[in-house]
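User: Here's a chain of 140 residues. Predict its fold as tokens.
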Amino acid sequence: MLTDFGRIFAFMLIAVVFVVIAVLAAKFIRPSRPSKEKLMTYECGEDPIGSPWVKFNIRFYVVALIFLIFDVEIVLLIPWALVYKEFGFGGFLIGAIFLFLLGLGMAYEWRKGDLEWVKPKVIPPVLKKNPVTNEVEVQA
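Assistant: Prediction complete.
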């Protein structure tokens, strides 16, 4: 008899074998007629112009990372929502603490300005000396 882990391993092994067989069968069955048009880079139906090594704004990556972080944390709420009643008040309290920390992280990102697409430009203060009183004034 197989243990639970043995069944999982067998299932994963069958899945890998199925994928490999499907990919190999598709490779042997499909026609292979490469042409200049087929080998060209595809960019949303437009002909590619210029170098593919374009510098992207770092904001794309920051937004993607923030999305992944919060998305994974939200996925953890699904099992908790299904079973928290079995753990009583303690289970509810742990979930509430998790949601509070998640909200705190979101508020931190919002306050930091990482959720805004265009960050406001920081204007540093300028020190100006008043010639009459000889005092230093800060002008924003």
